[in-house]
Design a protein that fits this description.
438 residues, alpha/beta, Rossmann fold, Dihydrodipicolinate Reductase, domain 2, Alpha-Beta Plaits, 12-stranded mixed β-sheet, 6-stranded parallel β-sheet, 15 helices, 36% helix, elongated, binds NADP nicotinamide-adenine-dinucleotide phosphate
């Protein structure tokens, strides 16, 4: 057996991910040593309750509630506690004591990333976070390293497994949102409080991390436009299917070139229609996928498990091996790149296609009035489908218009929808959805 140098590895957290990381570190110790060029010695695991039952068998003596002492003298600190505090304080302590750090904590990086990366820069430490964006899917390194010689134009990601699971079942089974959410909670795909997932907060954190890397720009969380999926209902799903689309919660990170050639970026999370032939449309269940469009490479798709203890542990261990190699041979980690710091534009300045569904009076001339309002609002119609809404006693006097638009400015579109709603001929704006993926 090669006599490798020993690196002291401290683990903070032994929950769904941490317990698997600890187990794999021990189980594959020899192989990992060969790959890393150093023996990764797990010196301790900080938790809240040392007596709590763990998912895997681990020696009792590794557990401690004293994270501070564990961090001191460690070469690599893996933070898998989650949340902001004390995770932030422990990471900073680890960095300042000379360790490289590995974290899967998207909430922390999306809110305190610059502080953590700056602290690491100051002492020459490195921060690795492959598991923070889409669980097991390697996407951080491809953006940071593999595509370093290219220019990313656009990223569209299904980066939240819970919402994809819900939308997929609504699409394939014709189920209602509330029923699928209840099922997802029972099966452990959704938390008891599902807000972070269904309102798009989790996806927004990941979008901020991906966009920061892809566009070399600090993207604060509050610059990410965010909408969740709670308003998506069965009629919207049915209408999407009828038109050849599927509804997905998408994280869209896009490079924009404004008049005069100035570049800016847009980062947004919302439910959108996507053509059924698009690769992202075939992402089912709780899976994640990230579709990257780069100037030279063209279209790339990264697909797999976006969560799960052992799956996420794979990404964490990859980072630990990278950190160990750096300890031996030097070099840089993932870190943060702010060299471009492009302006982040509000969603109102973004152009997309839309599908607008209206209920209108079924009278002659109404279609012409609607078309006129759209045209005045600089929203150009691509397709229109009209059906009569049936009522219990026959015809209701109401028609349903499904209008597909060409690309329009979001601000123009929302002003126009307001004008339509107030026009007197529109009974109800049923839905307005963006169409992505063109
Ligand atoms: P988890 O199951 O809730 O485990 C958290 C662990 O941290 C527990 O072992 C807990 O100790 C420990 N802990 C929490 N607060 C602590 C404190 N103040 N001091 C010491 N220990 C503390 O979390 P997880 O699901 O493994 O997630 C860990 C991180 O990975 C999070 O940042 C999460 O966002 C990220 N992540 C998770 C997944 C996933 O599929 N789960 C996927 C991608 C990324 P006790 O056990 O004693 O309570």
């Amino acid at each position: 057996m090669t006599d490798y140098r020993r690196l002291r590895v401290a683990l903070l957290g032994a929950g769904a991910v941490g317990s698997q990381v600890a187990s794999l570190l021990r189980q594959h110790a020899d192989e990992l040593a060969d790959r890393a060029g150093a023996r990764l010695e797990l010196v301790g695991i900080a938790v809240r309750d040392v007596d709590a039952k763990r998912d895997v068998d681990l020696p009792k003596e590794l557990f401690t509630t004293d994270a501070d002492s564990l961090i001191v003298g460690s070469d690599i600190v893996i933070e898998l506690m989650g949340g902001i505090e004390p995770a932030r304080a422990y990471l900073l302590q680890a960095i300042n004591s000379g360790a490289d750090v590995v974290t899967a904590n998207k909430a922390l990086l999306a809110t305190h990333g610059p502080e953590i990366f700056d602290a690491a820069d100051q002492v020459g430490a490195e921060v690795y976070y492959e598991a923070a964006a889409a669980g097991a899917i390697p996407i951080i390194r491809p953006l940071r390293d593999s595509l370093a010689g290219d220019r990313v134009q656009r990223i569209m990601g299904i980066v939240n497994g819970t919402t994809n699971y819900i939308l997929d079942r609504m699409d394939t089974e014709g189920a209602e949102f509330a029923d699928v959410l209840a099922d997802a909670q029972r099966l452990g795909y959704a938390e008891a409080d599902p807000t972070a997932d269904v309102e798009g907060y989790d996806a927004a954190q990941k979008a901020a991390i991906l966009a920061s890397l892809a566009f070399h720009t600090t993207v604060p969380l509050d610059a990410v436009h965010r909408e969740g999926i709670t308003a998506i209902d069965k009629p919207m799903m049915d209408a999407a299917r009828h038109a050849g689309y599927v509804i997905k919660l998408l994280a869209v990170c896009e490079r924009l070139t404004e008049e005069g050639g100035t570049e800016s970026i847009s980062v947004r999370v919302y439910p959108a229609l996507i053509d059924r032939a698009h690769p992202l449309a075939s992402v089912h269940g709780a899976n994640n996928a990230v579709f990257v469009q780069a100037e030279a490479a063209g279209n790339l798709m990264f697909y797999g498990a976006g969560a799960g203890g052992v799956q996420t542990a794979s990404a964490v261990l990859g980072d630990v091996v990278s950190a160990a190699r750096r300890h031996i041979a030097g070099g840089v980690g993932v870190g943060e790149s702010t060299l471009a710091n492009l302006q982040i534009v509000p969603v109102g300045r973004v152009t997309t296609r839309y599908q607008i569904t209206l209920e209108v009076d079924d009278q002659p001339g109404v279609l012409a009035t609607v078309a006129g309002i759209l045209s005045e609002g600089r929203v150009s119609i691509a397709t229109v489908e009209q059906t009569v809404v049936e009522s219990a006693d026959g015809e209701s006097g109401v028609a349903r218009l499904v209008i597909g638009t060409h690309k329009a400015l979001e601000q123009d579109l929302s002003d126009t929808v307001e004008r339509l709603a107030a026009s007197g001929v529109v009974e109800r704006v049923v839905s307005v959805l963006r169409v992505e993926g063109n």
